[in-house]
């Protein structure tokens, strides 16, 4: 028994001689095996180690044996599935499943396929079969995952948007989970910047979860890809977020947690990133912001590197920002003052009143104009944030105007 | 023998004159009341019979028929007791008097004494409008009845008093006209001085009150939304003479008026709790009563926790917000209740209240936030002119420089006068057709509104509401024309676009 075989018996993928297998001949058997309840990547690795290929595992009766070794609660179900597949014929059953996904542009990707994400090839265990729609080259480049809470603050939205945009402009493929909140903002920003983005779903691609982001998913199929472990047509009970999060972390070379309160699902992705040895970054928040408590803790525990700015993030992962600025049309004095203050630090109109000494009425008018110009956004909250366009504008260009002079001219 | 007396009946918040005809004829002794009389009137038989007997008169042992005309108008209440009693006496020859010009309004007690009724103010006004020269009311109703000019009001303590007066035996003196009381600041209201921070909230409230605009304060619990709204009674200008009578009439019908001080100059502020039924909110019921919306007529309807109100209640508010009145459709025809109020609402941004807050995490899942958001229908959302996203104040003590209510109230009062002089109505009640140069909307303001409306993707309705808010901002500043900066500030208070 070789070392690889011995390791393989334990269920490890590393060292398995996968490159000797024929992807085309193996594919139906991989698809069929990955459908079996209770048979996960570890059990598949064991079969590969013993039989050399899954086709051989089916021909040699190893699959029945693997099913019989399962815990009592899934043993019968798995055995029933194996019997069913045998009756129907494995190649035919697999072809039917593939045909089911075809109208939706869904293709299977086995761990033997060339299009299988390269960063997942080093994962152990790794998903035996993935289902993909869209551009299979989307992950053949630098990939960074951007994740965070489903309920971001305005600050979190602004940060996710900036980071998604900055990464996409630098040619990075932005990976995320298509959840509402930070995920959706990051995907959207990357696509809007003309970049590529990949969503790893907890659901089949023909049953997008969450349904609210169905439109976004369609856009991602055209400007990136959708990826999932769940075969087409499967009715899902509880979406399997933990496995999905592990794939997100595995797909990416670096993971950025934008905003996460305590016990956020994004922290599970962060934990997976640490386990898989991916670089982990976190966007800091104010110490009194509950929505940033999880990210702040990652930084405090030295688990994640603090992101000081989107440009700094690019620098840390070895990329440079692309040159890009927008010109600011002529701003009034009050607008310029308010924008300058917001670029220093986001704030509500109450805070701006303290920081600029301008009357509320004048601030309200100035903020309307800045919002209309796309330089400031409030994201339905009380706090106003400078937008990407504002950060790229190069404002204030040294034009220091004093608040008192303005207040006097009012 | 036949006799006829005059009375009046409440219908919605109006009163209509009613003739009471009594016929005493041979037949089996009995008393029948016809003319769509409700149950309280059917019981009048017993009250009138006892009262007549106990006042020393005789109930004729004949067949007595009472008809309330117009016979097709449903009638309710106890105000006809006196008219029925007197007509019965006249029909049976126990009283000889001219009864054609005096309205008789009052409920009879079994001992013959006269009791006050709800809606006296409206009833007496209807009698005057029907051409009656005098009215006899219960002594307890005299002050309220005498608030109506142009009709002599006589207060009677009992049926006996009323009969003696009508027969000319013991005439009752006409009551002196009840004066409009001077305006005084309503008691127990919060002064703006005691509100911590919330500069935007204060500003938006001032604009809303100054122009009669609808306002929504959105923010987490405890930031001062309720406190801010509690300051409203101390900020509103007094009612003028016509408004005072109009408002008092509604309160009289609702039975909410102080019979000794029937008129008030204090602009109504109604703040019903969110468990209030739809009927109580907009009016209705088998016997139609004005709801909170009508009680807030010419004033403010404060709805704290707006989204906790029943959704059908919120829908029912659309009509008064749009047309200034509530229409209640009945088999006998539609009834209109006046309900021109400004809506001042406050609510949390999500079910738990902490969405987008700094100090606490929101515990709602996104779907439930969406569901919560949808409770406020588009049309209702569209009718709220000013939106303020409030946040937790940074300070815990009040600002020594904070303006007090008196200062703000005087600015609001001046702005009201300007609007009244210019167009005779608050800005918030005017439609898009009134946006013209004569109201101060120059080409600059219109251009600014059009351009910003396009960029910020405002609906045409939203844009024209914002125009009137801008007009109010200019009025507060004392500016005859609306300038772009007024438009820009007005647009700051547009509704948030859900993220």
Backbone structural class of chain B: alpha/beta
Rounded radius of gyration of chain A (Å): 25 Å
- In whole angstroms, the N-to-C terminal distance of chain B is 78 Å
Largest sheet of chain A: 9 strands, mixed
Helix coverage percent of chain A: 40-55%
Please give the count of helices of chain A.
19
Query: Most extensive chain contact?
Result: A-B, 37 and 39 residues
Work out the helix count of chain B.
Answer: 19
What do the pLDDT scores of chain B average to?
Answer: 90
Envelope shape of chain A: elongated
Low-confidence stretches of chain B: none
Distance between the termini of chain A: 87 Å
Subunit organisation of the chains: heterodimer
| DSSP E strands of chain B, number | 16
Descriptors:
heterodimer, A: 410 residues, alpha/beta, 9-stranded mixed sheet, 3-stranded antiparallel sheet, 19 helices, 12 strands, 11% strand, B: 499 residues, 5-stranded parallel sheet, 4-stranded mixed sheet, 35% helix, elongated
Please explain how this structure is put together.
- With 410 residues, chain A is an alpha/beta fold.
- Mean pLDDT of chain A is 87; it is low at 323-327 and 398-410.
- Chain A contains 19 helices and twelve strands.
- In chain A, helix 1 (3-9) runs antiparallel to helix 3 (41-51) and helix 8 crosses helix 14 (310-316).
- In chain A, strand 3, helix 8 (154-169) and strand 4 form a beta-alpha-beta unit.
- Chain A is 47% helix and 11% strand.
- In chain A, the strands form two sheets. In chain A, strands 1-2-6-5-4-3-7-8-9 form a nine-stranded mixed beta sheet, sandwiched between helices. A three-stranded antiparallel beta sheet of chain A has the order 10-12-11.
- The relative contact order of chain A is 0.09.
- Chain A starts with a helix and ends with a helix.
- Chain B is an alpha/beta fold.
- A five-stranded parallel beta sheet of chain B has the order 11-12-15-10-16.
- Chain B is elongated and about 85 Å long.
- The model of chain B has no long low-confidence stretch (mean pLDDT 90).
- Chains A and B meet through helix 16 and helix 17 of A and helix 7 and helix 19 of B.
């Amino acid at each position: 028994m070789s070392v690889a075989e011995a390791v393989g018996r334990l269920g490890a993928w590393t060292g398995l001689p996968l490159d000797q297998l024929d992807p085309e001949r193996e594919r139906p058997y991989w698809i069929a095996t990955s459908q079996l309840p209770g048979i996960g990547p570890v059990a598949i690795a064991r079969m590969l180690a013993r039989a050399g290929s899954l086709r051989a595992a089916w021909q040699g009766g190893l699959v029945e044996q693997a099913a019989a070794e399962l815990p009592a609660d899934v043993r019968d179900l798995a055995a029933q599935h194996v019997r069913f597949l045998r009756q129907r014929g494995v190649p035919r059953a697999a072809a039917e499943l593939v045909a089911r996904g075809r109208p939706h542009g869904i293709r299977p990707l086995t761990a033997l396929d060339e299009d299988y994400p390269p960063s997942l090839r080093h994962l152990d265990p790794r998903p035996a079969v993935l289902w993909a729609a869209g551009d299979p080259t989307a992950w053949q480049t630098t990939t960074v995952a951007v994740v965070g809470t489903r309920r971001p603050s305005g600050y979190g939205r602004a940060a996710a948007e900036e980071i998604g945009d900055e990464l996409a402009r630098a040619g990075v493929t932005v990976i995320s989970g298509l959840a509402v909140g930070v995920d959706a903002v990051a995907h959207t920003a990357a696509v809007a910047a003309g970049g590529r983005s990949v969503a790893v779903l907890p659901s089949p691609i023909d049953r997008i979860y969450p349904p609210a982001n169905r439109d976004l998913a369609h856009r991602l199929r055209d400007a990136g890809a959708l990826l999932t472990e769940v075969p087409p047509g499967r009715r899902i009970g509880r979406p399997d977020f933990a496995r999905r999060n592990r794939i997100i972390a595995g797909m990416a070379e670096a993971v950025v947690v934008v905003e996460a309160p305590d016990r956020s699902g994004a922290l599970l992705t962060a934990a997976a990133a640490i386990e898989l040895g991916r670089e982990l970054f976190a966007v800091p928040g104010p110490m009194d912001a509950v929505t940033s408590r999880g990210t702040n803790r990652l930084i405090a525990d030295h688990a994640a590197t603090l992101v000081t700015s989107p440009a700094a993030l690019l620098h840390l992962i070895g990329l440079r920002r692309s040159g890009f600025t927008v010109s600011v049309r002529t701003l009034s004095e009050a607008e310029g003052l308010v924008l300058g203050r917001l670029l220093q630090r986001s704030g509500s109109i109450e805070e701006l009143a303290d920081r600029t000494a301008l009357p509320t009425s004048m601030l309200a008018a100035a903020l309307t104009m800045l919002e209309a110009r796309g330089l400031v956004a409030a994201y339905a909250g009380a706090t106003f944030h400078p937008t990407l366009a504002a950060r790229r504008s190069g404002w204030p260009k040294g034009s220091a105007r004093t608040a008192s002079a303005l207040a006097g001219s009012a | 023998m036949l006799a006829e007396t005059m009375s009046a009946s409440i219908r919605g918040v109006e009163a209509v004159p009613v003739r009471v005809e009594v016929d005493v004829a041979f037949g089996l002794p009995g008393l029948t009341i016809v003319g769509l009389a409700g149950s309280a009137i059917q019981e009048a038989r017993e009250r009138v019979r006892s009262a007549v007997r106990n006042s020393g008169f005789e109930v004729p042992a004949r067949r007595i028929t009472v008809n309330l005309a117009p016979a097709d108008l449903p009638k309710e209440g106890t105000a006809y007791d006196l008219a029925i009693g007197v007509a019965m006496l006249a029909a049976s020859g126990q009283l000889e008097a001219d009864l054609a010009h005096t309205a008789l309004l009052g409920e009879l007690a079994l001992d013959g004494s006269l009791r006050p009724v709800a809606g006296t103010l409206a009833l007496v006004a209807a009698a005057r409008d029907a051409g009656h020269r005098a009215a006899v009311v219960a002594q307890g109703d005299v002050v309220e009845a005498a608030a109506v000019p142009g009709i002599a009001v006589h207060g009677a303590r009992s049926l006996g008093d009323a009969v003696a007066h009508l027969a000319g035996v013991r005439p009752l003196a006409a009551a002196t006209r009840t004066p409009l009381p001077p305006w005084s600041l309503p008691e127990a209201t919060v002064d703006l001085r005691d509100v911590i921070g919330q500069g935007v909230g204060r500003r938006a409230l001032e604009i809303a009150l100054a122009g009669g605009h609808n306002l929504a304060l959105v923010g987490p619990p405890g930031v001062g939304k309720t406190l801010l709204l509690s300051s409203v009674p101390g900020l509103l200008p007094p009612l003028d003479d016509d408004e005072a009578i109009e408002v008092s009439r509604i309160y009289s019908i609702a039975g909410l008026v102080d019979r000794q001080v029937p008129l008030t100059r204090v602009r109504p502020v109604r703040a019903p709790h969110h468990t209030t039924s739809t009927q109580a909110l907009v009016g209705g019921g088998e016997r139609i009563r004005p709801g909170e919306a009508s009680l807030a007529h010419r004033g403010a309807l404060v709805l704290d926790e707006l989204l906790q109100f029943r959704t059908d209640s919120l829908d029912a508010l659309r009509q008064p917000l749009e047309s200034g009145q509530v229409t209640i459709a009945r088999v006998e025809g539609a009834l209109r209740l006046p309900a021109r109020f400004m809506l001042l609402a406050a609510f949390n941004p999500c079910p738990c209240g902490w969405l987008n807050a700094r100090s606490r995490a929101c515990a709602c899942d996104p779907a439930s936030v969406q569901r919560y958001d949808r409770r406020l229908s588009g049309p209702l959302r569209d009718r709220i002119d000013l939106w303020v996203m409030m946040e937790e104040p940074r300070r815990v003590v009040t600002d020594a420089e904070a303006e007090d209510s008196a200062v703000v109230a005087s600015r609001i009062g001046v702005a009201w006068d300007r609007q009244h002089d210019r167009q005779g109505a608050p800005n918030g009640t005017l439609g898009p057709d009134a946006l013209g140069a004569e109201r101060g909307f120059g080409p600059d303001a219109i251009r600014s509104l059009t351009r910003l409306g396009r960029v910020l993707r405002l609906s045409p309705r939203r844009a024209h509401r914002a125009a009137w808010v801008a007009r109010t901002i200019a009025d507060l500043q004392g500016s005859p024309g609306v300038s772009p900066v007024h438009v820009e500030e007005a647009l700051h208070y547009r509704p948030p676009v859900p993220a």
